[in-house]
Write a structure and sequence with these properties.
Blueprint: E1 3-4, H1 10-20, H2 22-28, E2 30-34, H3 36-45, E3 51-55, H4 62-70, E4 75-79, H5 81-87, E5 96-101, E6 114-118, H6 123-136, E7 140-143, H7 153-159, E8 167-170, H8 174-180, E9 184-188, E10 194-195, E11 205-210, H9 218-223, E12 226-229, H10 241-260
Parallel strand pairs: 1-4, 3-4, 6-7, 6-11, 7-8, 9-11, 9-12, 10-12
Antiparallel strand pairs: 2-5, 3-5
Helix pairs in contact: 6-7, 6-10
């Protein structure tokens, strides 16, 4: 492997663009994963990456050497430690990353329950919602315009490999999806009159969640069949959208498990 140590190197410039720009990710159909956990998850659930990137220090680590060996003939790029740090957004870079071909959703139609995200801009929230959806067995996530790029580094890190268990639909037409969905459409919103815990969630559900700042758009909120709130303690009037999504999704799972146990 030839060591790359110059920021002017065209290959390094392309890696940095790919790491930082959601538009470049969509244009090329690729993304950059950082860390042995994410690279291993991609290998186990999707296949081989396009390219492996290793730092000088990373190349001396047993875990990273074993990961390299498991990827066989995948092209490997060796970066100086300073260049790898410039590529990473972590305080303590892990020493290994990979360029991957992003899995494409195989269908536009959800066969089960699904999650719709309306302009959820915070990458940590998007990643956490993906992780919760995967944990309850929901496969389809539809991200409308204004959402954080689903393959950006912070979303990938927050989701901890959940991407590879999901069908991810970016730039989705949420209004059309709500209109076409044949199950229940439910918006989680703080100003709703009905409680989440009074709902029958035993069938297919399309969950709609909005940004913490502006919430769900008025057009989308009016289009759904049901609007529900999560009861909070007296004096509390807000809940993180990722936490709200987890509560809703696990309440659906609880009801379905209860139904199947009887």
């Amino acid at each position: 492997m030839k060591l790359i140590s110059s920021r002017a190197n065209p290959g390094f410039k392309q890696l940095r663009l790919l790491a930082e720009d959601a538009r470049e990710q969509r244009r090329t159909g690729t993304a950059l994963l950082e860390g042995a956990h994410l690279v291993s998850a991609y290998r186990d659930k999707i296949g081989l990456p396009e390219q492996l990137i290793v730092s000088e220090h990373g190349a001396t680590q047993a875990e990273i050497r074993a990961l390299c060996d498991s990827l066989g003939s995948v092209e490997t790029c060796l970066l100086s430690d300073s260049l790898f740090k410039a590529l990473s957004d972590l305080v303590a870079p892990t020493g290994v990353a990979a360029v991957i071909r992003t899995p494409q959703a195989t269908t536009d139609e959800s066969r089960g329950s699904c999650v719709l995200l309306d302009a959820v801009q915070d990458a940590g929230n998007v990643g956490s919602i993906l992780r919760s959806a995967a944990a309850v067995g929901i496969k389809d996530i539809y991200l409308g315009p204004g959402c954080a790029g689903v393959w950006t580094r912070r979303v990938l890190r927050a989701a901890q490999g959940a991407h590879f268990d999901l069908q991810l639909h970016e730039q989705a037409d949420l209004e059309n999806l709500v209109a076409r969905f044949t199950g229940s459409t439910v918006a989680a919103t703080a100003n709703a009159a009905e409680s989440l815990y009074g709902q029958d969630l035993s069938g297919r559900v399309a969950w709609l969640f909005g940004s913490e700042g502006s919430g769900i758009s008025s057009v989308l909120e009016a289009a759904v069949a049901r609007r529900v709130n999560i009861p909070l303690a007296a004096g509390s009037n807000s809940l993180n959208v990722a936490a709200a999504a987890a509560i809703c999704l696990f309440e659906e799972l609880r009801q379905k498990n209860l139904k199947h146990s009887h």
